[in-house]
Here is the input.
Amino acid sequence: MYPVQLNLNQKHVTIIGGGKIAWRKFKKLKD
Here is the structure.
């Protein structure tokens, strides 16, 4: 799995190596 750092309190999201696909997956998890 790709390294993922999520800090929702500060709304800072760092997804490494995933690109748009990982971002979409994160958006689904967030919803």
Summary: The two ends are 21 Å apart (CA to CA).
